[in-house]
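REQUEST FORM: STRUCTURE PREDICTION
Request ID: SP-0412
Submitted by: Lab K.M.
Chain count: 1
Length (residues): 190
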Amino acid sequence: MSFSLPDVSRAYGHVDVTATPHLKVHAAFWSTLDLTESVRGLIRNQTLNLNYNDWQSYGWPDPAVGINKTLSILYQYGDFPLQISVTNANTGAFSIRPDDPPRDQYILNYRHGHRNIISVIWGTMAGGKTLPESVTKFIAENGSFPATNTFFTFDGEPNVVKTAQVFYQHKDDGPIKCTVGWENTTVTLL
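STATUS: Completed
RESULT:
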């Protein structure tokens, strides 16, 4: 059995349904520094190209001199699901392109009451670790948590002082926020 897809471009008239969907960066954090607006300004042709090792050329101040930092970018193309890119100083050049494989490993979408925990990044999530549901549930229910290896049940970046980044929103239609805290501190969602 074979079939062919209809030519929907004629049905929509002026709308080019084959066009690349719009790249929207919801939040971008380098350690504790909010780079959302700066990263949005680097998008060209719905693609984001960055060189982690050349961060000074972007005019970014170093939020923690001498410490390896995580750059997390929460984004989506058009109405497609959210994705998150998690990188660090070992990454070098990287890009976010519409034809990339989905980066959804760390997208949680855990809802509790009015709070939706979208993603939690502990260090660089070394080794591709994922959070136990009990950790996400605790953060969603309490809105405050200790940023420790013991709490997360793994070391998100061994032998490095790290941050916990929590991307969340209040209600399903609220703005996406990120709260960040250093290791061995208490992180509280606003």
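NOTES: The mean pLDDT is 88.
Reviewed by: T.R.
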